[in-house]
Amino acid sequence: AMHELAALLKRDCVLREAAVPEHELLLYGECLTSNWLAVDGHKGWAETTIGSRPGDTFGDIEFSFVASRIDKKIQDDLRAHDLVPVIPYRGPYGISDVVRDDQGVDLIELAHVSFVDDMAACVISSKVDSITEDVGIASGIIVDACAIHGISCNFKAGKSECIIIHHGDGAREREQQLLRSPVISFTSLHFG
Q: What's the predicted TM-score (pTM) here?
């Protein structure tokens, strides 16, 4: 995604279409040119060929750009596994994501949410017996989408968690079973 962002930034029209003033275009170009940084324990410096200087405000923009690509990959893969929940929508029209079901009810996908480097994903299963498996599939999708972009998930205690709410016939039994063995297994294409 960084290479994609760099290619887009080389096109004048991307920033000009956003009505970015000329002096800001020059400043942005300067922040993405001949970047260097010191590396602890090494004499000299390291030069990057793409990206921004450490600590500059463009790092947030670049991270958001990369994160948006990861978010899209996750959403597409969740959709391919029929794991993106839809909810009734009664808001203003003109939103492109609204679809109408067979009964004429407007629906919108309940997408996962990202804030900086944190994410929350919602998975709704049609059967109480499949929620643990569905959460495992979603977890594998998230881990793999991050991995292909060079980001690893933090699985330390209190860092990566699943909140599962059982509902329907057999919910109490499934909840008790999960409490006895509170581990969600998943398969990753990158990590097994």
A: 0.64
